[in-house]
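Researcher: Structure prediction, please.
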Amino acid sequence: MEKTQGIEKLFFDLASESRIDIIRELKEQNLKNNELAGKLDLTATEAFRQLQHLTEALIVKRLPDGTYTITNYGKLTLQLLQSVEFTFSHKEYFVNHDVWRLPYQFVNRLGELSRSTLCLDTIENINRAGHLFSEAEKYAWAMGEKVLESLGPAMAKPVSKGVKFRFMGYDSSLPNFNQVPGQTPQIELRILTDVPTIIVYTEKEACICLPSTEGRMDYAAFYGKDQMFVNWARDLFLHYWELGKPSKPTYV
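Model: Predicted structure follows.
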């Protein structure tokens, strides 16, 4: 209990939109009181009052030249706040979707999805997955509980272009491929006993779907090109890839 005593004080310190804005500004550059006031449309008095509060909380500090800067503790607090802000902004989604089937280390990194976009439209997300495949130039990776028929041509396109293709899912969900004469496609397949998420990943963009709290995939998806988000999806894919059992592609 001793380690958590007083945590409510931190939440109080952050319980102001202007304080959070001040922290974000100071993370980018050191600023004087009047400069912060001008950037954030605050009075000089209000900016000074908020800076005093943040200084007492050890989140920012005043330098000898009169500017304020964020402390290392403040930077860490702001970084951890990213996950809280992300889940809060999508609370309706997370009430109805099960993130806890993912490994804890990826739940802890949810803030890395903060620059992704949530789309609830199933058809739009299926079309987006096909577009991701068709635009891939180096890698096209997918993980899912089944292969949708509409994605078949989209999955074949990167393979025909020499893109390195990986797919993993249940044994019954592994796709078949058309054999192109004179071509040795770079295809890798793996079988999973549990498929807790859908991932579509290329070197440019990613898309992920979590199951509902009832265990169904409703294809509501986070997608985006932000590098942190793309790296999160890649790392999650590789985590399950290591758990999968290799399987040979079937050609038709």
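Model: The mean pLDDT is 87.
Researcher: Thanks, that helps.
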